[in-house]
Amino acid sequence: MDSDQTDLIIFHKNLRIKDNESLYYGSLRQNYRCIYIFDPKYWRGNGKSVRQLYFLKDCLLELDCNLKTLNSKLEIFRGDYFEFYKSLAKNSNKYNLYFNHTTDINYYNTQYCKFTKIAAECYNVNIFSDFGVQRGAETNRNQWSKFWESQMNQKIHDIPMPNKYNKIKKELPTISLDTFLKISVDTCEKDFLEIQPGGTAAAEYLLSTFFTERCNGYRFKMSNPLDARDHCSRLSPHFAFGTISMRYVYQKLKNELLNSNYRIDLHSFKKRLHWHCHFIQKLETEPNLEFNSMHSMCDTLRSSENSELIERWIMGETGFPFLDACIRHLRKYGWINFRMRAMIMSFASYNLWQPWQKTSPLLAQLFVDYEPGIHISQVQMQSGVTGINLPRIYSVLKQSMDQDPEALFIKKEIPQLEYENLDNIHNAEIKSKYPGKVIDHKLSAAFARKEIWNIRKSEQFKNIAKQVYLMHGSRFRRRIK
Ligand SMILES: Cc1cc2nc3c(=O)[nH]c(=O)nc-3n(C[C@H](O)[C@H](O)[C@H](O)COP(=O)(O)OP(=O)(O)OC[C@H]3O[C@@H](n4cnc5c(N)ncnc54)[C@H](O)[C@@H]3O)c2cc1C
Q: How many Å lie between the centroid of ligand 1 and the Cα of residue 398?
């Protein structure tokens, strides 16, 4: 073995030891260091927040413990990728660098791409896939499903090899996890009451309880916010931070499908694992989606913002009890089910007619599971700006009646409505003690419908939509005419 070579495994969102390709290959020569790059500027980036940092803290603590069983440990480099490169270049060591690819916000992509490009001139840079997302020359929308299946069916990577040398040379200015947590996380003010715990053990627990009992009725219960809390898998933050591998979950699921009593529910879950990567693929293919609508003509729709309306929306003070209850729930727990996320976004984009670019980061900050590829694509879908999905304007009053007929959820989240009459609650006709309605929901929806369909009917719109479909559309669906 060439002993003056060190293998550096760089962690970003692959915070696990099981089925972690970069860690596995980086460990084979048994002379490796594990480095998490904490860039404060990234953590102030689009959609990032303190609650996500708290989840990260759990993940790093557990990862460090697990690495110690391999005679290794986690080191933290505090700074951006360019600063990291300068630290590498200051000494004459030969490094082999190992990464798992991440589709992330523009700030990260730019840093990471520049780093891997200049680093490749002096070091051996190895980049592995995470998820079923096609990168660079691999990208071929027509082959996407086949590619996804082949990624998910690959052999699970073994536990990494133990380190032979764990003496950390001082040539890199890394700090210990304990020091890092003291200076970067412990001093942060908690902005929430109760979020899910991070780490692989928590993810494994969720997976096993989901398969054995919680998935019973998943396909119905996922729609209402009370049932969904227990009956959805709740794996989303774990996929977002990489504490469990999607391939591992998929292979376990296939096995479970052979004998489970809840096969129909599990088939719905399986579809969603595809969606996870399908949505991330859009941002991977077109990183500018962070800033621009998928259909270019849609960026002219909502040209100005009203910060007072946005503030009332994101604080859960719109005067619509069910919507407010959903937002307050999300603020407290950092998670809410898909349908309610779609309704919250639809209200901001259609009823309040606010540009999604302004509302998207505020909503993302509330999600512990913020995954830019999914979030940004979903935000655009629920705002009617993709050109390839039929616009859907959710009625907050109908959702209130359908999802919470007894107003149990509403009363739990807004205790001041405990003795309010049910009809008043569902019709958002609360006389006292409650914010007035921020808009007329019927008039605002009619306005939005007219504006959206006006723009959609031109030939130019349809031609651009065809291009969007070719780049991003699922090939399972009917072709756009
Ligand atoms: C406006 C909006 C923003 C969203 N932002 C995010 C986000 O930042 N991060 C995120 O993970 N999900 C996001 N979603 C999708 C979805 O709401 C969550 O994935 C889901 O609620 C997570 O809970 P779960 O893990 O219990 O899901 P389950 O129902 O148990 O599904 C299992 C997994 O499938 C994937 N999945 C499920 N539904 C979807 C979907 N509609 N699109 C893509 N993947 C899906 C997720 O990885 C999820 O963990 C967003 C949806 C909307 C409408």
A: 22
- Nearest-CA neighbor of 252 among 273, 278, 237? 273
- What DSSP state is assigned to residue 476? T
Split at pLDDT 50, 70, 90, the class of 458 is: very high
- Whole-number Å distance between alpha carbons of 150 and 384: 33
- Kindly report the CATH class assigned to 200-273: mainly alpha
Nearest CA, atom 15, ligand 1: 338
Pocket lining for ligand 1, CB < 6 angstroms? 222, 232-236, 239-240, 269, 272-273, 275-276, 279, 337-338, 341-342, 345, 367, 369-371, 374-375, 378-379, 382
Mean pLDDT of 103-120: 96
Kindly tell me if the per-residue pLDDT of 479 is higher than 50. no
The CA 232 to ligand 1 mean position distance, Å, reads: 10
Give the mean pLDDT of the chain. 94
Burial 401-434 (b: 16+ CB within 10 A, else e): bebbeebebbbbbbeebeebeeeebbebebeeeb
* Ligand 1 geometric centre to CA of 355 (Å): 22
CATH number belonging to domain 289-472: 1.10.579.10
Q: Ligand 1 centre from 115 Cα, in Å? A: 31
- pTM above threshold 0.70: yes
CB 382 within 8 A of CB 396: no
Beta strands in 71-180 (DSSP E): 74-78, 94-100, 124-128, 175-176
Chosen CATH of 5-184 out of 3.20.20.140, 3.40.50.620, 2.102.10.10, 1.10.645.10: 3.40.50.620
Q: Among the atoms of ligand 1, which is closest to the Cα of residue 278?
A: 43
Atom of ligand 1 nearest to the CA of 234: 26
pLDDT over 80 (residue 172): yes
Sketch the domain layout of the chain as residue ranges. 5-184, 200-273, 289-472
Q: Is the pLDDT of residue 168 over 90?
A: no
Atom of ligand 1 nearest to the CA of 338: 17
* Per-residue model confidence (pLDDT) at position 61: 97
CB 290 within 8 A of CB 107: no
Query: Looking at the predicted structure, is the pLDDT value of residue 480 above 50?
Result: no
Task: Report the separation in Å between the CA atom of 173 and the middle of ligand 1, taken as the mean of its atom positions.
Answer: 37
